[in-house]
Amino acid sequence: MTAKIAIKKLGDKYFVFEAKDVEQLRTKHRIVGALNGTLPQFPLQNTFYGLPLILLPEEVELLVNRGWAHIIQKPSKTTTSTTMMQHREPHVTAIAHKQRKLNADVFDFFWSQGFYITSGVKFGGQFLLYPNDPMCVHSEYIVSVKQTKDQEVLPLEIIGMGRTATNVKKTFVLVAAAADQEQAETEDEQEKQEPSQMVCYSIEWAGF
């Protein structure tokens, strides 16, 4: 049985420090992450990076849920203040938790379709989807996650999404949970729905 990959949580970030684990994540599990360390022989440049590998929260959740990794976390001095803030703003905390859960479900959905997935922040979305390893091909889709399939999207936003995607030769995709997930009465009921069902809309700029 293959040993679980150790993911270290420092603050609100997740890191993998072992080269063999990074290789296993990419070749076996299609988890890309982003190298975040300085190369000892070339410290005065920012084109190439080395270990550790930093993971998205959605990548971590997928790995842990499938039993491929475990999280190592040291007690933090900020735990008390964070807990106090959560008690002061329970509504904000609940919204943030719901959005994180939705992002994780969307990540899992596209990962299950065979895509390699990275952060899409540079292109105005949550994720970028690659049909193969990002070292070999360019991404094809920019994914933006919406809380519901009926969430309002302004015309200017649609134009911006379409033009952005066209300029970088990609397709912009809006994705939200399907109706049956939105109507789930409890989070437990929602988590039992496997695989997660999503509604996707693609946007392409026609130029007229």
UniProtKB/TrEMBL annotation:
Transmembrane segments: none
Record-annotated tRNA intron endonuclease catalytic domain positions: 105-177
GO cellular component, one term: nucleus
Reaction equation(s) it catalyzes: pretRNA = a 3'-half-tRNA molecule with a 5'-OH end + a 5'-half-tRNA molecule with a 2',3'-cyclic phosphate end + an intron with a 2',3'-cyclic phosphate and a 5'-hydroxyl terminus
GO biological process: tRNA-type intron splice site recognition and cleavage
Pfam family of the protein (one): tRNA_int_endo
Any one Gene Ontology molecular-function term assigned to this protein's record: tRNA-intron lyase activity
Alphabetically ordered keywords of this record: Endonuclease, Hydrolase, Lyase, Nuclease, tRNA processing
Domain of life: Eukaryota
EC assignment: 4.6.1.16
TSEN34 N-terminal domain: residues covered: 5-73
SUPFAM superfamilies recorded: tRNA-intron endonuclease catalytic domain-like
InterPro entries with a match to the protein in the record: tRNA_endonuc-like_dom_sf (IPR011856), tRNA_intron_Endo_cat-like_sf (IPR036167), tRNA_intron_Endonuc_cat-like (IPR006677), TSEN34_N (IPR059049)
Family the UniProt entry places it in: Belongs to the tRNA-intron endonuclease family.
Protein name (Swiss-Prot/TrEMBL): tRNA-intron lyase
